[in-house]
Design a protein that fits this description.
binds uridine-5'-diphosphate, two-stranded antiparallel ribbon, globular, 14% strand, six-stranded parallel beta sheet, single chain
Length: 240
């Protein structure tokens, strides 16, 4: 049973449970999709039916932001906690390192995926990164071929939402991997181009505040967050 938060159904899992599920998917034929919606993504799904349909078909849907966890609580169906996509990705890499499973990195500006690959190989000895490619391609065919030829098991698709989820839905099967995870700006962080909030901010659930301090231009995007919680309160009052 999934937990509905304003139209997106979330798996109520801890980080470890999410990674266990992903590893189990790697033992089955693919493609499987892991989605990591934050409040902005839930809001977008409310306006984009195709995107909402894709999220509802995903094999694992984890709550990326603290906003989703608050909304679930307001709705009276609390989730175990947030599972940031980047933590999921890190834990998964730790578990597949040394197993022979092959990871492909797709997304971000030219050079970023390659830099991320170098950093990740150093961080997770035994991690097999079988390919890396930027996310500003014009044609899908060569990207699909590259993933298939690399015999990838797992692909981190970091094209921003909803592009990455739509890409996985359209091309996941042809590219031949078993597991695809849509992970937004994660490659920028792995490459050292973008900084994650210090642990104190993370622990307090204030990662969004740190991001806002670093990139004040995000204020427009973030101003929608309180509205998201108000929507949750409204839905609760209407008995949804
Ligand atoms: N990106 C990409 N291809 C595109 C558009 C964006 O690879 O056509 C990348 C961009 O360089 C960045 C990521 O997608 O690395 C999106 O990052 P953001 O933090 O905005 O992600 P989101 O808010 O979707 O999690």
């Amino acid at each position: 049973m999934r937990t509905d938060v304003l139209g997106v159904a979330f798996d109520n899992v801890t980080l470890d449970e999410a990674v266990d599920r992903a590893l189990a998917m790697l033992e089955e034929d693919g493609p499987h999709m892991v989605a990591t919606p934050n409040p902005e993504i839930v809001q977008r799904a409310g306006k984009d039916r195709e995107f909402a349909g894709i999220l509802s078909q995903a094999d694992l849907v984890i709550p990326d932001g603290v906003g989703v966890v608050y909304a679930a609580k307001i709705l009276g169906r609390p989730l175990k906690g947030r599972v940031p996509g980047i933590d999921f990705a890190s834990a998964l890499m730790g578990r597949i390192a040394g197993t022979g499973k092959r990871l492909f990195l797709l997304g971000a500006a030219p050079g970023v995926a390659e830099q991320a690959a170098a950093n990740l190989r150093a961080k997770y000895p035994g991690l097999e990164i079988c390919g890396a490619r930027d996310g500003f391609f014009k044609e899908d065919g060569p990207v699909v071929d590259a993933i298939r030829e690399a015999r990838a098991d797992v692909v981190f698709v970091c094209l921003g939402f909803p592009k990455q989820e739509k890409w996985i839905a359209a091309h996941g099967e042809a590219a031949g991997a078993r597991l695809y995870a849509g992970l937004g700006g994660s490659l920028d962080v792995f490459a050292g181009k973008a900084e994650r909030a210090p642990e104190g901010f993370q622990r307090l659930g204030l990662e969004w505040l740190y991001r806002l301090m670093k990139e004040p231009s995000r204020i427009g995007r973030m101003a929608k967050l309180p509205l998201f919680l108000v929507s949750a309160a409204g839905a609760r009052l209407r008995g949804k």
